[in-house]
Amino acid sequence: MADNKKIILTGDRPTGKLHIGHYVGSLKRRVELQNSGLYDKTFVFIADAQALTDNIDNPEKVRQNVIEVALDYLACGLDPTKSTIFIQSQIPELCELSFYYMDLVTVSRLQRNPTVKTEIQMRNFEASIPVGFFTYPISQAADITAFKATTVPAGEDQEPMIEQAREIVRRFNHIYGETLVEPEILLPTNAVCLRLPGTDGKAKMSKSLGNCIYLSDPADVVEKKVKSMYTDPTHIKVSDPGKLEGNTVFTYLDAFSRPDHFERYLPEYPNLDELKAHYTRGGLGDMKVKKFLAAIMQEELGPIRERRKEFEKDIPAVYEMLRKGCEVARETASATLDEVRRAMKINYFDDAELIAEQAKRFSQE
Ligand code: ATP
Ligand code: MG
């Protein structure tokens, strides 16, 4: 039965290293929530089975990136003594739950999911969508509900997934009795972090689009990526007035800059508004703004990069941490599955009442 515990669950697909979009969209928040003491449990998982739905012919990519994501987690401050970190495929209960949920969702409902629609287009799947990919919102509902998660910190693209999960929970509880918990999404409070654009100015920084600044990028790579970022193509001479809209450098400043950064790196401007005003007026070159952004990025990413290097020294220990996490996660998921089977009346062998009642009925016939 549902109790009043507050439980966090989120995950990432091991399709590449994690980037600053993940960081501002979800990862940073998770670490804060983990350390806040406000939640009873935190589960964070590496969604390898989901990654395979659109990488079925590339299992090596998924296999190699599990450790990359785990290292990024640890580097950002996810702490296995406070959070359960696990790998999706190692929890078979999640497949079982998805299988039952498939009966609660219609094909047309899945077809309406806007995120899945966009992702199908992005992957040129229109003519031949793998069934597993098409139904991944259902498996995601299983991931969330198996742990009775109340709170899912994620980027904006996950909103339709959470809504789908909520519908499944309502339908399940309606038919089988109050068993599952309805999750809520926790979106970033800073609007630009809902969906951080790529360095190329495209709508979303995404591993699959190759427009990322990775958390583990060396300092010189970060420097290079910032310097070649998309700005305002009509801002050619320093004296030209510049546009802020669609200007990725300013979007990143919206996401990352704080007043103390100005004091340290750009004391001639009191704040971001003044910097923006000067850019819009004309007379402020892209390079100066990019240098400022690069300094901020290095300050934010430097400690993450250093911590990652430490964890990289003991890879077997990281796998051991994941193994233990899987064990703990499996216990929780398996307890939920017991409740689900009971609610769905498929718990034959531990239902003594059923057997006794049927024995009686048959003996009377
Ligand atoms: P893929 O291209 O393989 O789908 P991805 O970069 O979209 O990878 P996911 O693993 O699908 O990353 O997403 C993990 C989490 O990070 C989700 O909560 C998602 O909302 C968030 N996220 C991903 N990209 C961004 C972004 N550009 N801005 C904000 N949040 C993001
Ligand atoms: Mg994605």
How is the secondary structure organized here?
Layout: E1 7-12, H1 20-36, E2 41-46, H2 48-52, H3 59-76, E3 84-87, H4 93-101, H5 107-111, H6 114-122, H7 131-134, H8 136-146, E4 151-153, H9 159-176, E5 184-186, H10 219-227, H11 248-256, H12 259-265, H13 272-281, H14 286-312, H15 315-343, H16 352-364
Parallel strand pairs: 1-2, 2-3, 4-5
Helix pairs in contact: 3-14, 4-8, 4-15, 8-9, 10-14, 11-14
The structure holds adenosine-5'-triphosphate and magnesium ion.
Short structural description:
With 365 residues, the protein is mainly alpha-helical. It is 55% helix and 6% strand. Bound molecules: adenosine-5'-triphosphate and magnesium ion.
**Small-molecule binders:** adenosine-5'-triphosphate, magnesium ion
Task: Please outline the major beta sheet.
Answer: 3 strands, parallel
Q: What's the rounded overall pLDDT mean? A: 94
Strand-pairing-aware structural class: mainly alpha
Shape: elongated
Number of strands: 5
Q: What series of H and E elements makes up the topology?
A: EHEHHEHHHHHEHEHHHHHHH
Helix content: 40-55%
Which strand order does the major sheet show? 1-2-3
Count of helical regions: 16
User: What is the CA–CA distance across the termini?
Assistant: 37 Å
User: Ranges with pLDDT <50 over ≥5 residues?
Assistant: none
Give the C-alpha Rg: 24 Å
Fraction in beta strands: 5-15%
